[in-house]
Structures are given as C-alpha cells and as structure tokens.
Amino acid sequence: MVLSIGQIFYCVLLVINAIAVLNEQRFLARIGMSPQSDQGFGGDGPSLKTNIINLISAVRTLMRKHFRFVHTTPCLRADKQTVPTRQLPAVGASSIFDMVEEKDDIEAAKKKGRQRAKLCNPFRKPVVTEASKRHTEHNYSTMDFRIAPRKLNMLARQINGKNVNYAISQMQFSPKKASKKIMNSLCTARDHAWRYKMMDPKKLYIDRAWVGKGLYRRKRAYGARGRLFTLKLKKAHMKFVVKEAKQEGEGRPEKKKIKGMNWEKKKKVWMPLLEDKPIYNPSKFYNW
Fold first, then answer.
1. pLDDT digit string (tens) for 13-55?
2. Which of 48, 152, 198, 267 is the most exposed place for a label (fewest CB within 10 A)?
3. What is the number of structural domains in the chain?
4. Which domain does 50 fall in, by range?
5. What is the pTM of this model?
C-alpha cells in the first residue's frame, strides 16, 4: 500500500485536532465551567464525540496500512500515469507473420536457457575447439615416495617421448614396483589436460620426463657383535610435461641455427642400396 504525503498529513491533523479538543474539555472541567452541549467555546466546530470518532478511525487506518514506501509526490510520475495494457488483435486481424516471430522468440529464449544450464553443469563434457584452446602443454608431478632415484629413472626413460595412452599401457604391465604410481599419475595428468586446458587426449604425448630427489631419512641398523650401521631411506619424485602433437604440415618447419644462419631441419629419407650401376670389365665366373 502506498500513501501520499497529503494523506499522511491529513491523518496527523485529525490526531492533533482530537488532542486539542480533549485538552479543552479538561480545562473547562478544571475551572468549573460546563461545556456547551459537548461543543467548544463558541459553540461552533466539531463535537467531542465526532473528534473522538475521527481520532479512532485515523489510528485504525494507520494501523491497517502496510507501509512499503512513502511516495513524496501527490500524483504519479508522467511515465506511470497510465498503466499499459496488452491489446489483443481482433478476430481475423492477426497476422501469421507475427505469430511466427513470436514462436521464434520463444524458441530462442528456450535455447538460450538450455545453453546457460549446460554451461553451469560441472559434469558436462568440454567441447574442444580451436577458439577455446589457449594451452599447448601441461605440467604434472608426483609426490615424493619411497624409492631410489636411480630405479625411478629407468621408468622415466621408458616413457619419455611416448604417447600418453601407450605409456599408460607400458606402466600397467611393467613388473616394477613404482609403475602403478606412475600409471595413475599419467591418467590424472591426461584428464587434467583434457578438462581444464581443452587438450585432445588422443594427441597427447610426454615431451619430457625427469626424476628429482626428495628428503633422505636416516635409520639405524644393528649388526652382529654390537656393530651399528646407518641406512639412508631415499625418496624421489617424477615430473613430466605433456604436450599436444601437431598435425603433419601444420605451421612452419622447425629451424636450427648453424653459424648464425637459419637452416630448415630436414630429415633425410632412408633408401636401400640400389645396385643399378652397370658393371664394366666383369671378372671371370670362376676366380680360383
């Protein structure tokens, strides 16, 4: 409910008028004068009963109103003087083109809502597009675990330069103890590169793989005849860089600098030994 300033001011005036009449009646009763039939000094003006009724009605009006906000102007603004009403076309006067346009707008709004819901879904499958890709490599590292760096380096050399799926297969069937940890790390790196960096998992390969040392812990070992030894419990971790393989013929060929000049790096095509050279002055068939 919205009350204007004029309505509030009118209610306040009624309250003030009723209070003034009550004070007048009390003053007359105090000095010993009887009011004229329930009127004021001059006999004109509203009676006491009328003022009390007006006061009660004003208070009830104020108590029943739920004030959301108070309007500071007595009339509506120019843009809200008329309430817009939707005018429906007469029977037989609607255009089929207007109906088609309205239907297209509804379908476009539904499609936009579905796209927004699809974007908000965290379990959606990301779409790999050239416009959305910004990364070409992904770095991943395992945690330090109990293994010697020399033993872990064997697995690093085995998967270096290989396709990620092929490296996972190699670690799956490897008899090494640390192969299962490396296999799980490769699966996690492949999923992260696919989900967070929009990289195609089928084109991923391990560009570099190296081993780092962790903190060594010392442990006492007791031998025979009271002898004491110190053992080193070694820890190591593996880091690797996953990249996306380029298609053949994509981009410029790689160049290497030789004596300040850029030469194209071309790989020679291997050809078998072809003995197509004619033989002059052949030797005899029997040489003994």
1. 767 777 777 777 776 666 665 555 444 444 555 565 666 666 6
2. 267
3. 2
4. 5-64
5. 0.45
